[in-house]
Every structure is written in C-alpha cells, then in structure tokens.
C-alpha cells in the first residue's frame, strides 16, 4: 500500500523509518512545511515529496499518518475523512477538548476509520497485562500504579504549547489504565510541584505530579510523572488484585538502582528515550494501522478512546489548580 505522512519532525521521521520497513508498505508520500525535512525523508526512504496536504491526498495514498503539530490535527483528520482515506493521527486529537469533541461530531457516521496514536496499547508487556486482567488471573483488582518519568524536560517552546504535563505526558498513563483494566475513571485528585527547570513553572505547569484516580468499580489507580529522572526513561505499571499481582516494565533496562545487599537487578543499560523504550510498540502500532487500511481490523484506538483520556487529563489539571477532587462528569460539563 501507499502511505502518506504529514509532518516530518522527530516523530514523523521515526514513523517514516518504521513504515518503510513494513512489508505491507510499498511506497511513501511525504509533506512538511520545512522543505529540508521532506527532502531528507525522500533521500533516506525513497519517498515522494509533495508540497501540501492537498497534494498528498491527491497522490493516490491508501492511508495517511498525521505527525504534524497539534494545532493542525483537526483539519488534517477531517481532510483525510473527506477524501475517504483512513487516518492515523498522533495524540492528541486536538489542542483542547472542545475542539476534539467537534472533530468527533464531524466524523461520526462516516465510514472512514481513524486510529489515534497511543503506542503503549501495542507494547508486549501492557498487552500481556491486559490479557491477564481479562482472563481473571489477578482476581478482583484493588490497586494500579502507573509511572512515566522523563530523563529531562523537553524544550521551553514545547512546554509552552504542550497543554501541561497531564495532557502531554500523564495522558499516556490515563489511556493505558483504561485499556488494561477495562474500567472508566470517575474521579481524580492531583498534586504537583516545581523542583527543576524554571521555564516549566513560568509556563504555569508542574514538572512533577501525582494523581489518585478512582475507577468505576472502586479500584484505586496511582499515577506518578516527572520531567526529571536523570537515570533514564522510566515507564512501568503494577496491577494488584486479590489473587495475584503483576508488573510491566520490570526488566533489566529499568532505570532504577537497587541498594539491597547482593542484588544485581536491574543489570542492563537503562532506557534513555521513549523511542528506545517503545521501538517495537511503534512498529506494532503502525502494523495495526496497515491492517486498518486494508480493512482487516477495526481501529484499535478511536477518537472516543483518546477523548476519554483527555477528560481525565483535564480533570487532573483542574484538581491541581483548585486543590480538590474533581469528577470526570464535572469537566465534561464545562
């Protein structure tokens, strides 16, 4: 098949590399406002370069991958749907929830599949955890712990446009908690602080946060995030039930150092970047998209899924700012 890529920044170029290695993908068509980025992709992957999204959609593509800036996501999703071309779009659907809801309304009833990029759904550990929960291996769940710690903050310009740590970073934890447990979040309580880069505080954001989520069956989920984790990129989950407990990310590249006498675990070189931690997950995610394009599977992460994670992020942001518990229904009504 012929896949178009809109946006060739860090993640777009990474997707181009991944797609070029998939058996199902015969050719790539790319576009980016910066001609140099498109030219580099063309030279590296043999891609065809066009000068606009309109030209890309007119180039006979079977599916499109939207990796452009967040502000462009709604228009590009809708352009793909109008053209009848399946869409993969990196999260979020839009910069704000109100815009995201408008996108959902605009595409409802249209027979064009849309997949939103939440790559943890395709990581082998998280897939195994979901299967264990669904099979009842843990019994009734009572506690979930989910962690995302970045080795260093992104640039100041990125922070200023990110929508805040809950929408930019924690939202991956929120999505994977929903997906692994099969439950919905009903209420949150969030705290945060600034112990590092001044530009994060100046942007009105926190660099380290914690959130308590109450799920609709009474399970408690604890989410921990930080922009500062010098030892490496740390993504983990623990799921505790009355019968058993399991963990995702408990492997030799875990960025933790044990101080227990005689313990050598973890013994590997720590993960240092999300592309290192989730290389295989990204490959599985885009392989899934080629199956969506081929019509052999439904979207594994819909706009509705992405918006549910977004509501949790908005509730945590409000909770942080107002120092109180916030229900998901409260933010839906705002």
TrEMBL record:
Domain Gfo/Idh/MocA-like oxidoreductase N-terminal residues, every copy: 1-118
Keywords for the protein's UniProt record, in alphabetical order: Oxidoreductase
Domain GFO/IDH/MocA-like oxidoreductase positions: 126-243
InterPro entries (alphabetical): Gfo/Idh/MocA-like_OxRdtase_N, GFO_IDH_MocA-like_dom, NAD(P)-bd_dom_sf
Record-stated family: Belongs to the Gfo/Idh/MocA family.
Name the record gives this protein: Gfo/Idh/MocA family oxidoreductase
């Amino acid at each position: 098949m012929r896949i178009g890529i809109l946006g060739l920044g860090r993640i777009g170029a990474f997707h181009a590399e991944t797609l070029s290695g998939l058996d199902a993908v015969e050719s790539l068509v790319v576009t980016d406002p910066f001609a140099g980025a498109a030219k580099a992709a063309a030279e590296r992957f043999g891609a065809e370069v066009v000068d606009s999204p309109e030209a890309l959609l007119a180039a006979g593509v079977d599916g499109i991958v939207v990796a452009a800036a967040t502000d462009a996501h709604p228009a590009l999703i809708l352009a793909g749907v109008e053209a009848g071309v399946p869409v993969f779009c990196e999260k979020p659907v839009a910069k704000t929830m109100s815009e995201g809801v408008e996108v959902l309304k605009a595409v409802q009833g249209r027979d064009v599949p849309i997949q939103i990029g939440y790559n943890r759904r395709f990581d082998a550990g998280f897939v195994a955890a979901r299967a264990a929960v669904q099979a009842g291996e843990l019994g009734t769940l009572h506690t979930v712990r989910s962690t995302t710690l970045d080795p260093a903050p992104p640039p100041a310009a990125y922070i200023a446009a990110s929508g805040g740590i809950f929408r930019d970073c924690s939202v991956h934890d929120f999505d994977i908690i929903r997906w692994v447990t099969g439950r919905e979040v009903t209420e949150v309580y969030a705290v945060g602080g600034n112990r590092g880069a001044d530009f994060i505080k100046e942007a009105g954001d926190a660099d380290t946060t914690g959130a308590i989520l109450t799920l609709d069956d009474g399970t408690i989920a604890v989410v921990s995030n930080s922009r500062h984790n010098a030892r490496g990129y740390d993504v983990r989950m623990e799921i505790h039930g009355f019968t058993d407990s399991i963990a995702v990310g408990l492997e030799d590249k875990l960025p933790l150092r044990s101080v227990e006498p005689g313990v050598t675990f973890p013994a590997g070189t720590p993960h240092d970047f999300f592309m290192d931690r989730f290389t295989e997950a990204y490959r599985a995610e885009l392989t899934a998209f080629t199956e969506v394009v081929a019509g052999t599977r439904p979207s594994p992460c819909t706009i509705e899924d992405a918006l549910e994670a977004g509501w949790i992020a908005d509730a945590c942001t409000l909770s942080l700012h107002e120092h109180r518990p916030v229900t998901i229904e409260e933010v839906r009504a705002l």
